[in-house]
TrEMBL record:
It comes from Xylona heveae (strain CBS 132557 / TC161). InterPro entries: WD40/YVTN_repeat-like_dom_sf, WD40_repeat_dom_sf, WD40_rpt. Keywords: WD repeat. The lineage of its organism: Eukaryota, Fungi, Dikarya, Ascomycota, Pezizomycotina. WD repeats lie at residues 20-53. It comes from the Eukaryota. This is Uncharacterized protein. The keyword Kinase does not apply.
Amino acid sequence: MAKPKGSQDSLPPAQPSYVLRGHREPIHALGFFRENSRLISGDAEGWIVVWDIYLKRPVAVWKAHQKSLLGVGSWGNDRIITWVKYLFLVVWRGSG
């Protein structure tokens, strides 16, 4: 059966415009905040990296938990929320 013209199979593979490198372990959680100017990433070892999207650089890095993160989020412009499997939620406050 012929594929319709303009199908996704006819497009070239997507290429990244930039790769952010800051974690040694697999990333388990991502979230944007500050009107999408910051990206929060959390990994399998409990590390958090807050990225400046425009500069493509980390503005804060810390070991938030001893176990893998299940999620990250924001609360307003100056608070980051992290949570892990053992139902422990932390609200971090800072200027990152």
